[in-house]
Amino acid sequence: MTRTGEKKHFKRSNIPNFWGIPRKEAKFTVKPSPGPHPILNCIPLLIIIRDLLHFADTAREAKRIIHAGEIKIDGIVRKDFKFPVGLMDVLEIPKANLSFRIIPAPHKGLILHPIDEEEVGFKLCRIENKTVVKGGHIQLNLHDGRNILIRLSDPTNAEEDIYKTKDVLKISIPSQEILDHIKFNENVYSIVIAGRNLGLTGKIVKITKLFGPHASTVTLESNGRSFQTALEYAFPIGLEKPLISLPS
Fold first, then answer.
1. In 3D, which of 119, 118, 130, 245 has the Cα closest to residue 191?
2. Does domain 9-118 correspond to CATH entry 3.10.50.30?
3. pTM here?
4. Where are the domains of the chain?
């Protein structure tokens, strides 16, 4: 049973283009479960299996595959056919020997980018917020809904707190061990995750911080070309080079 006012289905007229399903074949489609990604910035697992990977012809067939435990997201088997798969998530189908990372691509939105075995064991997560918890330790709130507790040997020593919002962590999945830390600074390689420059990548050459929503900007450079995006749309992915593979 759903809560009062909560709708079980999603109108096809409202779906993002990157879902890849016809809008006029039916009025409704599957609605993503509440989860780590916004409803318009994720893809329900059923849509991935049926419409993007074409492993099933019908929703019933796709549900059967998912319920059988054939799909892993970030190293964990997911059996909810509505599970929301979003930015930087790693999707594995072991029986088919296939693995993908969800990343933005120019003019396409979110795509399933094939990755090799070396990339399957980690993902990149951006720090969206920080909170101080009991004992003065720090909890990092990441873009995909997960939280990581950073225990400080001396909570009164500010130098120990090296993590800032908009920094990105390379973490192992599913164990969540921090493998690397990319600071949100100039000369860092980034990908644009929203806006008109969605999916473009380049090195940050200038950060301009101003007051007001979307006022702060980032200037990136790639192959001698400069372009600008809102600060919140720049997602660091590496220092000298990206830590993840990208579409050619």
1. 245
2. no
3. 0.90
4. 9-118, 122-182, 189-238
